[in-house]
Amino acid sequence: MHIERYDGDRDALLPLFALADDSPTQIVSYIRVGEVLVACEGGEVIGHAQIVETGDAGTFELKSVAVTQALQGEGVGRALVAAVIRRCRERNGRRLIVSTATADIGNLRFYQRQGFRMCRIVQDAFGPSTGYPEGLLVDGIPLRDQVVFERDLGAD
Ligand SMILES: CC(C)(COP(=O)(O)OP(=O)(O)OC[C@H]1O[C@@H](n2cnc3c(N)ncnc32)[C@H](O)[C@@H]1OP(=O)(O)O)[C@@H](O)C(=O)NCCC(=O)NCCS
Fold first, then answer.
1. In the CATH scheme, what is the code of domain 2-152?
2. Which of 20, 89, 102, 137 has minimal Cβ neighbours within 10 Å of its Cβ?
3. Model pTM greater than 0.85?
4. Whose CA is nearest to atom 38 of ligand 1?
5. What is the per-residue pLDDT across 120-133, written as a single tens digit (0 to 9) for each?
């Protein structure tokens, strides 16, 4: 497996973006921005990570990350986050943020294992007004609130 910058057609990555976000409306609003890295194996793209600039100088956002379902749990996601951290450092980033649903316990574990700390909760970030179907559950927990994580890029 290797990770490289992706300069191809972003629409080809839609299935991966859709794994990371249940709102097609939201995906359309950001799929073309920033920089995308992809994990490849045997000529196939098996994962992606999108880095976008924020309004704060030195702060980047990991906007979207996903690994093909059949290959999850094999270290590809960890390698993608490590590559994103290296890339943001190259771009003089000091802080990386990422947000996810508070309902997604697996993601809460994943990001904390990669050195992220929780810094903010956004109540009702997910719902019909932001393009998410009413009544979505993740492991029985209503998809409703968002947690923002941050990682100091100076720290290992
Ligand atoms: C989240 C995701 C990118 C992680 O990638 P991955 O290749 O499956 O993760 P890795 O194999 O690199 O796992 C790294 C660590 O996180 C843990 N982890 C990853 N996903 C997890 C989950 N769903 N539940 C619990 N732990 C998880 C792994 O167990 C591993 O732990 P370890 O450090 O103790 O070994 C991947 O599962 C995915 O694509 N999920 C669907 C899309 C998504 O939710 N994206 C994030 C949206 S915010």
1. 3.40.630.30
2. 137
3. yes
4. 66
5. 999 999 999 898 98
